[in-house]
Amino acid sequence: MSAALSDEGSDQNDSQEDVMTPVELIAKLEEAWLNEKFSPDLLENKSEVVECVMEQLTHMEANLQRVRKGDMKASLHRMEIDRIRFVLSSYLRSRLQKIEKFFPHVLEKEESRADGDPSYLSPEEYAFAREYLANTETYLKAVALRHMPPNLQTVALVKAVPEPCLDSFVFLRVKERQDNVMVEPETDDQREYVVDLEEGSQHLMRYRTIAPLVSTGAVHLI
Amino acid sequence: MDPSEVEFLAEKEIVKIIPNFSLDKIYLIGGDLGPFNPGLPVQVPVWLALNLKQRQKCRILPPPWMDVDKLEEVREMERKEDSFTPPPSPYYMELTKLLLNHASDNIPKADEIRTLVKDIWDTRIAKLRLSADSFISQQEAHAKLDNLTLMEINTTRSFLLDSLNCMFKLRSNMQPGTSAGKALDY
Lengths: 222, 186
Prior knowledge:
The structure holds two protein chains of two kinds.
Chain A: H1 2-6, H2 8-15, H3 22-38, H4 47-65, H5 72-112, H6 123-143, H7 157-160, E1 169-174, E2 178-183, E3 193-197, E4 202-206, H8 207-216, E5 219-221
Antiparallel strand pairs in A: 1-4, 1-5, 2-3
Helix pairs in contact in A: 3-4, 3-5, 4-5, 5-6
Chain B: H1 3-10, E1 14-19, E2 26-28, E3 31-33, E4 42-45, H2 46-54, E5 58-61, H3 68-80, H4 92-103, H5 110-137, E6 142-144, H6 150-174
Antiparallel strand pairs in B: 1-4, 1-5, 2-3
C-alpha cells in the first residue's frame, strides 16, 4: 500500500502537459477561488485548473480505494482531499451564483466575444446559463406575460436584470509591481492621480481600475 | 467571506509538532510531509496538527511569535504608533484562537497570550474604524492597507464596501445621464 501512495508525487508531474507541480496547481485554484469570491463581475473560467485538480483528486481517491480501513496515512490523505474539494466546489458555486444573477449579460458577453478571445464560461456553465435563461423566460410567460395585452408580452431581460457593478470597491494584494495606476476622483472637485502598486502591498480601490490586472494575475483580490 | 473561511486559510500555516508515533514520509497533493518519528519535531500545516492533537498523537510547539514577552512588545508598539504595525503573524488572531482552543495545554501562559492578542486586536480594530471613517469623510478613491491581516479586512468588509457602494449610488443618481440601478451588492 505504501508503494501506491508514495509514487503519488513523482508520476503526476510527468502526466501533465504543462510544467505545473501539484503544489502550484493548488495555489492557482485558491487564488482563482478568492478572486472569484470578491470580484463583482464574472471572471474568465479556469477550466484547465479545475480539470487538473479533478484529475488529481480522482487519482488520489482511486489509490485510497485500495487501502484498508483505519490506515493512518489514508486518513490524512482523505482530510487533504476534503479540503481541496471544499475550495473547488466553493469556487464553482460562486461562479454559478454570479451566472444566475447576471445571466443575460453573461450570455451576451460570451456570445459577442471574438473567436480568438478566451471564453468566460466553460461549456457546462454556458449550457447552464442558456437553460437558466430559457427557464426564466418560460416561467415569466406562464405566470404573467401571457395574461398581458399583446403589445406588452415581451420583456427584454438584458434591460431587466441588473448589470454587475464594476464600480464597487475591492481589497487587493499586489503580486507584481505596477507603476502609474490611474485613480479616478470620487467627487468633481478632486483631481485624478496615479499610484504605484508595490509588490506585496495591499490596497482598497475600485474594481474597474484594476480589473485588467486581476485577469493577468498581477494583483489578486483579498 | 465567512470568518470560518478565513480560518480555513489560516489552517494552511505551518507549525512544528512533536509526534508520538512513527510514520514514513507522506506525499500529499499540496506537498510532502514527514517522516514522523516519536520525539522529533516536524513541520506540518495547522489543520493536520490540530487533527493529530485531537487524536492525542502529538504535542504542538507554539509558533515563535506566540510568546508573552514578544506579544507585550507588539502591544506597546501598536499602542504607540498611529499607523498599523506589522502583525506578529498574518493570521495571528485565527492561529491564537485555534491553538488555544484545541491545544492550550501545549502553550505556556495560554491565558496571558489570549489577553495580549485580544488587546492587540482591539487596538488595531479601533485604528481600522478611525481610518475607515476618515476614508469615507474625505471621499478618497484609493487607500493603502499594508500590515492589515485578512481577518481584520474581513470584519470590516461588508459594512465598509456596502456603505461605499450606497454612497456611490446616491452620488451617481444626482448626476444626470448616468445609468442608475446597477447591482450594488457584491
